[in-house]
Amino acid sequence: MSAVPPESCLAGMRILVVEDEPLVAMALEDMLLARGCQVVGPVPSVAEALSLILLEAPAAALLDVNLGVETSAPVAARLAGLGLPYLLVTGYEELAENDPLLSAAPRLVKPAAPELLLATMARLFC
Amino acid sequence: MRSLLQGWAAANRGLRAHLLGLVVLAVLPALAIGALAVRHLALAYHEASEERLRATARGLALALDADIATRLAVAQVLAAAPSLVLDGDLQAFDRLARTAGQDLAGPDGTPARIVVSLPGPDYRRLINTALPWGAPLPSGLVQTPDRAPFPRVFATGRPVVSDMEVPLVQGPPVTAVFVPVWQEGRVVAALAVVVDSARIAALLASVEVAGGGFAGVLDGQRRIMARSAAGTALVGERPAPAQLAAIERDAAGLLAGVALDGTPIVLAWQRLARADWVVAVALPAAALEAAWQGPFALLLLGGLLLLALGLGLAALVGRRLLRPVLALARAAEQGRAALAAIPPAPVREVEALRHAMLRGAEAMDERAASERRAAERQRLLAAELSHRVKNALAVVQAIAHLTLARSTTLEEFRIAFEGRLQALARAHGLLLRRRWEPVGIDEVVEQELAAWRRDRLEIAASGPPLALAPPQGIALGMILHEFATNAAKHGALATPGGRVELRWALAGGELVMRWEERGAVPGDGKPGFGTRLIRQLAQMELGGSAEAEPRATGMAWRIAFPLEAREAAVAAA
Question: Which residues of B touch A31 (CB under 8 A)?
Fold first, then answer.
């Protein structure tokens, strides 16, 4: 078992935030900025997320699974295709099971404690 | 019987057993009635047989009487012949007698013999046609005087019919009729017409006794003179004493007994009128019993056959009935598809049962499907609820996080956090009351602003009652809360005489809402957290924009987002 990397490794990392709930998105943004991350987004839809991946070249992503009328599965697929790590933050445990990619992905259940979120990000993204 | 039937009905027996029981119940009474009828017939037949025996005995007695009468008549004619009485031309009489004897010949052609005897003491024979004319004639005294016919004729002057006699010369047993020969008022001689017993036997044999019976004649000493069967074997024997006693008692009758050869018989007898003879007609008891045992056995056999046939049919019908029923029972456990696959039953009631079961199975399937759908709906609802609760908690967490980061004192945090939480709760409450259906924009406005109006703050709102999707309703509620909070803290609502106007309208597929504060000094214009929240909500949740337009008279906001022209389904109460 490898040692858990310190959260400081997240500093300066470009992280895409896909979240359709504005208040949650703002809170995530604040938290990432406080750790020195560069936030790409936040965006509430698949289309905007895909264009930001192309334009802003994030190094990793936090994905809300349920985006109202759609899910972030296409975003996860694109990230996986690029070999970029991502973490699902969702209230939808069950619906994610329908998608093989999403159900296999690492995931935190909302509402997640900021410390747990950061530690998980550090483990996955560094 | 009643408890027996109840017991039978109460026991849980198969259909086949019930059918077999039915057959037995139906056949047994018929068999009993048949047995009664056969018994009645058998009795009638028995009586008829006995009556026929009696009639045969009577008929034979009449015939024998007639034969005796004939011989007596011939004898009396001969006894009065002139050649015997007047002339004494014995040779002429002998010729006449031989001619008459020919007429009374026995079955083998042996003529009857004519014997004429003179009175005692030596009873010398005058004529005997058994011997050639002119041959020396022996004396005929062989019987004891009181029983012997010749002495009786001379003593009484009346005809006598003899018992069976065995002749002096060798030959078959004979019987004879004797008449007196009168001359000048005196019996001068006696004339006998002697015939073989075979003549009697032939006469008996001429009448057939139905059913293997036979007839016989007993003479005065109750010896058997002749029989229609068994030849001369039993001639001379006497019947059993018990039978003789009955025969002596009555002139005619019927008895059951045992024949001389040991066979059980039924015997009818009739005494003759012209002689002390008795005609007996016998039938083997077996033949008589066979007359009713035969039909009875047939009935029994037929009844058993009928019963077997009935039981066999019952088993067949039972199987025919049971097969579809059992198939139904098996299919019912396997479900509707198995029921539907069963071919139509040949029995209407079973077919009706099948239809009913099919309908029942369909109803059950329908109910099961309905329950599955309900359960699925329930599961989806639970998942949706879970999602919303977690999302709401995430939002609360975010509000707390964001508000805390911008608060300098705990009191400031408490007021701001509670206000935002209440705004969120109000928006959710409204949507909950509307069951998460589209909600009127005026309802959202009224709901949010009512809280501020309670503090006698001047807010005027106007616009059409357009419908908002639930997330839009929540976002708009939160935005209005931020507007009002800012106004109450720094703007028009914090200034005496200050007021706010809120207007909205739909134009070109876009809803434009204006928040304009009047009577307030413009703020420093530095965008705070509230401003950022407003913009984020407008962009991400409403898919539009929020522009701050500070003026000399006070703060103003312009919110625009796309909206379809649709009235709220439920008007504001």
Answer: 401
